[in-house]
Amino acid sequence: MSLQIVSPTGGIAPLLRAEGVSLEYGGTRATHDVSFDVYRGDRFVLLGPSGCGKSSLLKAAAGFIAPAAGSIAINGAPVRGPGPDRIVVFQEFDQLPPWKTVKENVMFPLLMTKRVSRHEAAERAMHWIGKVGLSGFEDAHPHTLSGGMKQRVAIARALAMQPEVLLMDEPFAALDALTRRKMQEELGRLWEELRFTLLFVTHSIEEALVVGNRILLLSPHPGQVRAELNSHQFDLASAGSLEFQAATQRIHGLLFGEAATAVAVSPAHAGDHAERAVKRSMDSGVRRNDGL
Ligand SMILES: Nc1ncnc2c1ncn2[C@@H]1O[C@H](COP(=O)(O)OP(=O)(O)O)[C@@H](O)[C@H]1O
Ligand SMILES: [Mg+2]
């Protein structure tokens, strides 16, 4: 099956809705009129070249920055600031306070938000530390851990909060290739088990295909929606296949200036919501940018 340009429709309300979101820094536009819907259980990927505003969109969803125009809503309620329903895992390994042990790091947001007692926070922390494969390291401090292990702690800390949406900003980009692959695999395994909702940012086409079930393609700076694709059929096992390579090429073309073609699409898969084709006009004057 080839990649299909799709747009979710149907009666199901999205969990997270971005509508016409333009983000600005001091009058400079980082994204322009970006709209997308994330449904419960989606692994929704924002894909585009460096500087196209992926992190800014994630920060807006997290409530760290406010749109200059447009809106972002969770369960129909406008995002007005950060909240425990949206937890971010960043790329940087220093997102863990170094003076806290692994267990204390995972417990910290649970205690801060007064969600549970100290006893229950400790129990939950141990549970999630186990889930990310770090049993035995609960009393270790971050500086004694590898990059991959630190990212596991950040994932455990996020999932322990049981957020409505897990937000991940290039969480594996600073890892070596093998560790990155392993982490992608484990994220997939966790998702299979827990079916959380994921909003994931990457500039890697391959990672987008492996991690996502839906991908929003953003044009170079300022980020605008190029297309939305269905990618549920791909995973690490299919990563070397001809079909996967064709999808990679296709996305590259869509991102960097291939002439727009509307794709006739039948309902793409038996997902949680119906999908239909959309015709999106593509800006043909896009700069080629191999920095993706
Ligand atoms: N704090 C900031 N102040 C000023 N400009 C920023 C800030 N953060 C991001 N930008 C600019 O906004 C644009 C989008 O950045 P960003 O969201 O980080 O893109 P991406 O994550 O896709 O690489 C870039 O041009 C970047 O320079
Ligand atoms: Mg970024």
Automatic annotation (TrEMBL):
Keywords assigned: ATP-binding, Cell membrane, Membrane, Nucleotide-binding, Transport
Lineage: Bacteria, Pseudomonadati, Pseudomonadota, Betaproteobacteria, Burkholderiales
CDD domains: ABC_NrtD_SsuB_transporters
Organism domain of life: Bacteria
Stretches assigned to the ABC transporter domain: 16-245
PROSITE patterns, sorted: ABC_TRANSPORTER_1, ABC_TRANSPORTER_2
Region (Disordered): 273-292
The protein's name in its UniProt record: ATP-binding cassette domain-containing protein
Molecular function, one GO term: ATP binding
SMART domains in UniProt: AAA (SM00382)
